[in-house]
Amino acid sequence: MALSKVSAAGLETELNPMQEGDDMPSADEPHQLCWFCHKKPATHTHTQTNFSEMVCATCLDRLQVQHDYEHAWLHFLELENEERYDEVLAGIDAFLEANRHRDHDQWLARSVAMSRSMVLFEAGRYAEADEACDAWGRFPFDNVTDRWFHGSAKAQIVHALGRPQEALAIFEEAFSHQDPRYDSSIPYYLHWLVDFSDAVGQPVDEKWRRVAEAGAVDFAVEMPVRGSLGESMLALAEMTQGMPSKREREWKAKHGGGTGEGEP
Q1: Does the pTM of the predicted model rise above 0.90?
Q2: Are 264 and 252 within 8 A, CB to CB?
Q3: Distance from the CA of 190 to the CA of which of 16, 32, 38, 55 falls in 20 to 30 A?
Q4: Into how many domains does the chain fold?
Q5: In which domain, by residue range, is 207 found?
């Protein structure tokens, strides 16, 4: 097991802060409040690839610093691929210091803490990665998928440190936090549950069957039947790759399909 390489695409980011079931905004709709925070008056235009949103000045800063950090990772990733890990760490720390005044909601500080943990893991510096992961975990989780992502990373580090039973317990604790709004993400995380269970030589606990079934329901598929619960989970994860979630299906039904631009 290994953490995925850190990249702009792999950052724990989501420009769209809306919860499941929210309607996508349209550039043609009037905006009285900021599209991003839904609290302050919208005074500036923030443009994405497919459409624009009206946001407040604070959120414009927030979205721009996220864009800049993700762009910077194109360079950091090149360094990481060359195993120049200290340069990556120095680069992300310098970015944080230079942009701390723009980090209004600590998104950048949290992302840098996450990045440090993953880079140190990639470098094989597991004790340092463990400390960095703990620092990352001290930031509030915006939703359960943030918690699952952190839990899977922490568990991988602990497993690498030779404590597989503890790794399983860490992941199970994180994954025990469930929210039906994020059922579509469940299949993605099932392989970690299988991997950590296999590492300690035990089958996946039956208590997780209902969680996996909730993921299947979100994708409108039947839970696969295989020789074991773990094998069924892996089959479900493979089956649902690239499939539209419940939210995506509802959005298309409401908006009549179309080209897919601006979809959730």
Answers
A1: no
A2: no
A3: 16
A4: 1
A5: 155-245
